[in-house]
Amino acid sequence: MESSEPGVVRIGELSRRVGVSDHVLRAWETRYGLLRPTRSAGGFRLYSAADERRVRRMKHLMAGGLSAAEAAHAVAAESASAPGRESVATDGLAASGVAQNLESLRQALETFDEPAAQAMLDRLLSDLSLPTMLRDMVLPYLYDLGERWEQGAASVAQEHFASNVVRGRLAGLARGWGAGTGPRVILACPPGELHDLALMVFGIALNRVGWAVTYLGISTPVIELSRTVEAVRPDLVVLAATAPDRFEAISGELTELGRRSPLALAGAGASATLAERVGARFLGGDPVTEAETIGRF
Fold this sequence. Notes:
By secondary structure, this protein is of the alpha/beta class.
């Protein structure tokens, strides 16, 4: 029986949410200190939204080629560099509030209640800073939705509806992002890649730290990307994909592109190994944090 307290769950529910067996989760907790559970009155371990975020981050880093030990060390370093984010989500919103708001957003979107979803997004934008709202609300919801769609736990209709509502809100936040006064970035997805919401989040966050964004979006032919690079002369090109084969299919073109412009690869389809092979930078963190990191240099 799962805890009814908002923001904390038993290990079985955490396992279901993140797609990692409870055996592996216990191993990560014991070996690396990745999970930091509290205890219920009955003595059961209870896991927070911060624990869930750390597991998802570890999975992403391991998918990029890091060993479990290396990924756990990287997650610990990131937590140490952002004090307070593990127990409090920033902006004064406790971990229990994060989970509660995520569940409210999920319920509205997946019951096709567009007015309620828009009201929830309005509330989040009012209560939170934009980076916090994107990093701690929008991205976790999108990752969870994608995983449940792959597992058959969310329907095609639910995925399409939710994605379109979120896309509309992101498009509003992206308005004017080409007018940044700092460096310029071209953002695109390689041929065949149809998922670009995380890339939009990255562009919004990067624009907020001064970068100008030229956005090409989904399934961009390499020839068109190359022509845009020639026309715009960007300071950086970022390509994002959800599957490695999207990048592998154009690895030769990526190598050539990397010789003409600074290049970075992002998304679940990217890896440190692939990026090194084609002469690109690997963006393995969440889109908001990566944008903030780039913006500091």
